[in-house]
Design goal:
Length: 187
């Protein structure tokens, strides 16, 4: 997977396609059938996770700070159980609006939260906030995806597109695997 990514950055598209095809043909990884399952508690090491930074809650220094960092400022005690909410990595309106209608991945961007009976408009990434697992402040067991199988399928499609000097049936095949899981039609 990483070798293919290196080849992509070097514009060695045939070599990248070969490397990605080895990952695909190895049948070690596959897409989870439901996109939202990627961010459920207990999904560490699932069949789509090629590389994850793993965290362990309840052990000093081994827990994740992701929920605290991704939660919008002012949402402590609402979006996360304890500790500060730092508001890092907040999606912008143009990113949220870029999703095609019906794309289930858009649900991973929350438009805000309710505090003291009032809705607060503050976009944030749900995946690492809503699934907070662990002892609270800077102690989540939520792992961070570094590389997923979906990434490899999309990169393979891109490499095939570059090798063929335009889209072809195989590139569409792998692109459409990811689109189908996202609730979108084939291209």
């Amino acid at each position: 997977s990483l070798l293919g990514i290196v080849y992509m950055t070097q514009k060695k598209y045939e070599d990248a396609a070969t490397a990605f095809k080895k990952v695909i043909d190895g049948k070690v990884y596959s897409l989870l059938p439901v996109y939202a399952d990627l961010y459920k508690a207990g999904m560490q090491g699932n069949k789509e996770a090629i590389w994850q930074a793993q965290y362990k809650s309840g052990t000093a220094g081994l827990g994740s700070n992701l929920p605290n960092h991704f939660a919008p400022v002012g949402s402590d005690g609402v979006t996360i159980p304890t500790g500060g909410a730092y508001g890092f990595n907040q999606p912008t309106d143009d990113i949220a609006n870029a999703y095609t209608a019906g794309d289930v991945r858009r649900h991973n961007i929350a438009d805000g939260y309710t505090k003291d009976g009032a809705f607060v408009a503050a976009k944030y990434i749900r995946g690492y906030v809503d699934r907070e697992t662990g002892g609270g402040y800077l102690d989540s067991g939520a792992d961070w995806y570094v590389l997923r199988y979906a990434d490899i399928l999309l990169l393979y499609a891109e490499a095939l597109n570059e090798v063929g000097k335009g889209p072809n049936g195989d590139a569409y095949l792998y692109l459409n695997l990811v689109r189908k899981r996202a609730g979108l039609g084939d291209l």
